[in-house]
Amino acid sequence: MSDHRKSYILTAWGKKRTKLYFQQLHDGAEYIAAHQRAIAPRDDLTGNTELGVYPVGEHYLVYAPIGDTQIVIVALFRQTRDVPTILEANSYRIRRQLTAALDKFRTEK
Predict the structure, then answer these.
(1) Which residues of the chain are under the pLDDT cut of 50?
(2) How many whole angstroms separate alpha carbon 70 and alpha carbon 90?
(3) Does an H or E element contain 107, and which?
(4) Which is it for the CA torsion 93, 36, 70, 34, positive or negative?
């Protein structure tokens, strides 16, 4: 998340609510990693990308499983956004960056 976005959230929501927001996102990511096999696929949102989507508050965490209890967060979208169109328009970039992240993850193991 950009510094500009963090600053906007902090100004609009205040410190306490901003901290809660980031904690909910963190908790959501940890839940996904621990329970990814039990989370129903959302092909209506991700198409055939092999990505997962999980709602956290008013947002979707878009993720890629990389192990039994590990994920890479690919994106964070408000639920009102057109997620399928955004993922399709950025599929090349997402694939490239995800491949780089996976290569880095594997070499650090």
Answers:
(1) none
(2) 23
(3) helix 91-108
(4) positive
Among 77, 41, 75, which Cα is nearest to 57's?
77
State the Cα–Cα distance between residues 94 and 37, nearest whole angstrom: 22
pLDDT given at position 2: 66
Which CATH homologous superfamily contains domain 3-108?
A: RelE-like (3.30.2310.20)
Residue type present at position 61: L
Q: Where are the domains of the chain?
A: 3-108
Residue type at 86 in one-letter notation: I
Question: What pTM did the predictor assign?
Answer: 0.82
Opening angle at CA 62, ends 92 and 28, nearest 5: 155
